[in-house]
Specification:
By secondary structure, the chain is α/β, with parallel strands linked by helices. It is 42% helix and 20% strand. The strands form 3 sheets. A 4-stranded antiparallel β-sheet has the order 7-8-6-9, covered by helices on one side. Strands 1-2-3 form a 3-stranded parallel β-sheet. The protein has a two-stranded antiparallel ribbon with strand order 4-5. The longest helix is centred in the middle third of the chain and has 18 residues.
Length: 240
């Protein structure tokens, strides 16, 4: 298929969930889906089956008779996704689907997306500014000033653009400071808490063993997608 000559066929193969809803607040969820289905040429029993299937996928049957304008944020998002699925597309595009939602509602929306992938095997493209959401993806592309800054699996990006670190609070900081400076290991101290970058998480084991009598507490923190984002967008890491 080619853009320009096969536009109708392409539209039938993709579904889009926009950041702002396109649905009528006065119509019920079912009525909104019926209206959208007719845009794709569906009618009669075929239309009703498509509506029922979309409602089932996003688990929206219980509020299908409610006006869209009376729904909660999470229910609206699930309905928006159902609207994009009404014509059974092969690919789904989601434009920041959880923006403005509370943590619990975000989790519900994500569960809907994950269930959709498991049940239908659909390919999902999603834009987001939330790195904890990006970490759930199979593959990530980071855009900087309109160009691809980095791409790869979450594991690959974290391995390349972030590092683990150890945070510890000491009962007796002097031997720890002496060891770190002798070994030329970089560190910072803030409010009595050491922050030590680690090239490998396992490097924390001999340090903790040596300092166990001097430690009050410690934790090893794995590099995150937040670190990846900040390092790439801040230009602190060399990009291939």
């Amino acid at each position: 298929m080619r853009l320009g000559s096969d536009n109708d066929a392409i539209r039938r193969r993709i579904g889009v969930v926009f950041q702002e809803s396109l649905l009528d607040p006065l119509l019920t969820v079912r009525e909104n889906l019926q209206t959208r289905g007719r845009f794709y040429g569906l009618s009669g029993s075929e239309l009703e089956q498509a509506v029922d299937h979309a409602l089932q996928i996003v688990e929206a049957e219980e509020f299908a008779k409610q006006p869209y304008g009376t729904l909660s944020g999470g229910q609206r998002r699930r309905t928006d996704i159902a609207r994009a699925l009404i014509h059974a597309p092969k690919i789904l595009f989601l434009d920041e689907p959880t923006t403005g939602l509370d943590p619990k509602t975000k989790e519900n929306v994500w569960q809907t997306i994950e269930n959709l992938q498991k049940k239908s095997g659909m390919t999902v493209f999603m834009t987001t500014h939330y790195m904890e959401e990006a970490a759930k993806a199979d593959y990530i592309v980071l855009i900087r000033k309109g160009k691809i800054a980095a791409k790869g699996t979450p594991y690959d990006l974290q391995d390349r653009y972030s590092s683990d670190r150890m945070r510890l609070k000491a009962k007796n900081p002097e031997p720890i400071v002496r060891f770190l400076e002798e070994k030329q290991i970089p560190y910072t101290i803030h409010n009595g808490v050491f922050n030590i970058p680690l090239q490998d998480t396992l490097l924390a084991i001999p340090m903790i063993t040596q300092w166990q009598e001097d430690l009050e507490s410690f934790e090893v923190i794995h590099g995150s997608m937040e670190d990846v984002f900040l390092n790439i967008m801040g230009g602190e890491w060399e990009r291939a």
